[in-house]
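Aim 2 progress update. The chain analyzed this quarter is reproduced below.
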Amino acid sequence: MVFWIPFLGVVLLDQLSKWYIRSNFALGQSLPVIGEWLQVVYKENAGAAFGILAGARWLFIIASAVSVVLAICLYPKLDPFGRFMVAALGLVAGGALGNLIDRINQVTVTDFIYVKHFPAVFNIADSAIVAGSCIMGIMLIIYCYRPVQ
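Predicted structure tokens:
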């Protein structure tokens, strides 16, 4: 359950939030949440982070699908790293699946979170991928540099 709760939670929250944005905002429309520092801005992204490789839809579909399948197959093997590592992998895989669903259903990925001075608009799936990757990196460092007993 340590893998599945974050995995399914991210997919559900991501897809519900994107559905809400697509249903209630016009493309390009924005709504301030905390002044100019945090806004909801409806964008569609045909590329990866920061719009790079726009138009490489099938590359992203294949890479995301392989990532999700690998995560589902490999998470049981992460027990030596602990529950945080397994949960972090669930975040990453859930984010990958959330964006994969967009790429399959509508070609582009719906982005809507804008933070001032950050160079791109992003979504919940992107946030889960970044947070999970950071946690996994920290856990790997801790695991690799722990004292030998």
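DSSP finds four helices and three strands in the chain. The longest strand covers residues 38-45. These observations will guide the mutagenesis experiments scheduled for the next reporting period.
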